[in-house]
Write a structure and sequence with these properties.
Blueprint (H helix, E strand, L loop, with lengths): L5 E10 L8 H16 L8 E4 L10 H9 L5 E4 L6 H14 L5 E9 H10 L23 H6 L4 H16 L3 H20 L12 H5 L6 E2 L12 E10 H7 L8 E9 L14 H14 L8 E3 L5 H11 L25 H16 L2 E8 L4 E8 L20 E2 L4 E12 L5 E10 L3 E7 L2 H7 L8 E6 L4 E4 L1
Parallel strand pairs: 2-3, 2-4, 8-9, 11-14
Antiparallel strand pairs: 1-6, 4-6, 5-12, 7-10, 9-10, 12-13, 12-15, 13-14, 15-16
Helix pairs in contact: 1-2, 10-11
Length: 479
Amino acid sequence: MDPRTPCLIGIAQRTIREQPGPEPLDLWESVAREAADDARLPLSRLGSLQVVWTDSWQYDSPVGRLAERLGAAPRHRAYSAVGGTAPQLLIGAAAAGIAAGEFDSALVAGAEALATRRAYRKAGEHVPWSHPADPKPPYGWERPPHPSALAHGLFLPVHTYPIMETARRARLGVTIEEEVRERALMMAPMTEVAAANPHAWRRAVRTPDELAADPRYVGWPYTRSTVAVLEVDQAAAVVLAATALADRLGVPAEQRVYLRGWAYAEDTWEVAARPSLGSSPAAGAAARAAFDRAGLGLGDMDALDVYSCFAVALRQACDAFGLDPFDRRGLTVTGGLPYAGGPASDYVLHSTATMAGLLRAQSGHGLVTGVGMHLTKHSCAVWSSEPGGRVGDPAPVHVGKEVPLVSACSGTGTVAGYTVAHGRDGGFEKGFVVVEVPGSGRAYAVVVEEELLAEAESRELVGQEVRVVTDGKVNVASW
């Protein structure tokens, strides 16, 4: 084996339930030290330190402050952009740097303290955390939302993902009632996994009947019990090293987990610009490339963790991979983002650490996937107790082609996908629709009449002809 072959040798996870809890910097330090101890790696010789973007607090120098805390002076440092694929991109960069001989060890850490921020907010207190950025940097997304999405207030995943769900449901001819029941059947087993995971945020087992009966809509048809829970205090870290260094550190062979292959792909950045709202060519392309690089296939996987922020993320991945959503292996090793916890951009560090622990215990191969933004970015990573394959690189193996997006439109069109936003009190807020505009492309529009919102939740609206009026910025649909 090449002595520069990268392997994962250290893992750590923390979940803090008492609020207010520590700030993200404290959590980074805690899991970094634990992962380094697990790897037998002195932090003073760390070659690379990489940190996943945190939504909880904007530090003046996130990686620099962590390096100071750890007493480390890594030559390579990186702080990610926003998105659920960010941990895998950092892990991939770490593996590539090790394989190229640029450094022989790397630590990737991430943390959120959004539950603590909520506790301070409810108490009416200022968050007393250290080293704030002044001025605050721009938000860490790679691309801001389209001006039309911003004009319509459509930029939260809790509203964009259900639009894609309704489009998929209509394309397959699934009824509203069937979608709800299938979602409950798919996600109830995830609650059992979370119940057995000591790091999970929600550890209550829920039956399909309980999930299906939840009346608390967020972005219809999604309910609070089946979407990612963001307000968590959680942290995770992993350590990778060259095989030669792992040998010198005395890391046992059974503690080493290898990244056999990974890949990254992109669908369109705007939901309305997606040729098919209900499917993901990029997810399939990423999986095919990752398996090809690993020299393995889906049938070789002993365990799976499919990104599960919303049901449509699971469903589109299963469609693209040829995976039965009721596969005997299950869809998650953590319990998934709605139950184990969805710490903003950081979840894939948790799923990777959990997968590594499982492969240490039982050997074999495992698939970990990530999703970023509005089902835009996709990563697939094949991990194994056995070395082999070729790692791959971050260049996208697929980039989606866009349908033209019309900012202002008036006249008639057809609904391609939709949702109804609900407030914290459970009441209607407004509807969001993606409208097929004949001969022009697609447009966003809102629905504001309450009787229409109630009707939209009672029957299939995809395919409905609508009338659209505009003030030049905001389009309003009715029928």
